[in-house]
Write a structure and sequence with these properties.
Length: 190
Amino acid sequence: MKLEVTVIPVTDVERAKEFYRRLGWRLDVTPPWVVQFTPHGSSTSIHFGEGVTTAEPGSARHFLIVSDVVETHEVLLAAGIEVGPLYHGGPDGPVEGPDPERRSYFTRAEFADPDGNTWILQEVTTRLPGRVDADDTSYASISDLASALRRAALAHGEHEKRNGGEYDENWPDWYAEYLVKEQTGEQLPL
C-alpha cells in the first residue's frame, strides 16, 4: 500500500486552484468533480472540490518535506506566498531561525492556503533509521539530488584525507553507498 491522495477542505475551488498553481504544483487530469494537484517530486497528491469532503475548511494540517528549507522559504516568498519565519525546536520551545547545525528534521516554516489549511515545511536531509528502505531510495528533484551529491562530495573529501589523500578509484561505489545510507538513516561510510 502507498498513500496516493489526501483531501483538503476548501470553500472556493477556483481560489484554491490559483493558490496551488502559484506554489508551482502540477494540476493533474481528473474527473470533473475533483481537482488534484501534486507537489513537484511527490508521489502523493491533494484533492479538493465541491462536495469532496465534509471536513471544515482550514482544518487540514500536512507536512511538506524539503531538502533545503531556507531555499524553499525564499522561493515561496518570491512567489508571493505568505510563509512564516524559519524556526527550530529549542529547550524552551520554538526558536526563530534555522537550526544552527542544520540537523535533519529540526528546521521548519509554515504557510496556509486561503482557507487556512496549514502546510509545514520540514527540512529532511538524512532519514531516521528504518524510515526508508534501501530499495526505495530516490530524489524528488534535480536540486535534491545535487544537494545530496554535494554532501557526499564533502564527506568523500574527508574520506580521502583520512586515507592519505590518495585518489579513490572506487568513488562511485562510495558515493552510491553514502547516498543510500543517508536516505535510510544508516551509519554513513567513513
